[in-house]
User: What shape does this take?
Amino acid sequence: MKITQLIVLLAGLLAFASSQAASPYAGQVKAGEVCAQCHGMKQPGVGSPFPPLAGRDANYLKTALKQYRDKTRVSELMNNIAGSLSDSDINDIVSYYSNVH
Ligand code: HEC
Assistant: This one.
């Protein structure tokens, strides 16, 4: 599968998993369907070049995702993935990852 097809597939799954209320449970579902493919659910994740997310500082993760979404931080993969995240997706996913140890 080409990486662009993978991104389209993942973005579709993410839209499907979207829900209204911010919660670590919704975040776990979204992370499991999309982010975990590269980052894993718990440390150490898949490993280099994918940074682990579990147990990281919530503000750091939130800032990084908004920077990827706004393209003030450049990564072809993460700009595509974060581009489709809403604020509530980010809040859900961050509340999941920052609480996993
Ligand atoms: C196709 C693989 C892939 C997927 C899927 C993916 N990422 Fe990433 N992610 C990367 C790579 C590669 C980097 C490193 C990019 C860089 O150098 O800035 C990264 C970096 C990050 C960072 C910055 C970490 C740091 O230490 O600064 C965060 C936060 C992040 N991703 C969150 C997510 C979230 C949340 C999702 C799910 C919505 C996700 N990623 C899905 C590949 C992926």
Q: What stands out?
A: The radius of gyration is 12 Å. Residues 10, 34-35, 37-39, 49-51, 53, 61, 64-65, 75, 77-78, 81, 93 surround heme C (CB under 6 Å). The chain has a mean pLDDT of 85. Residues 62 and 90 are 7 Å apart (CA to CA).
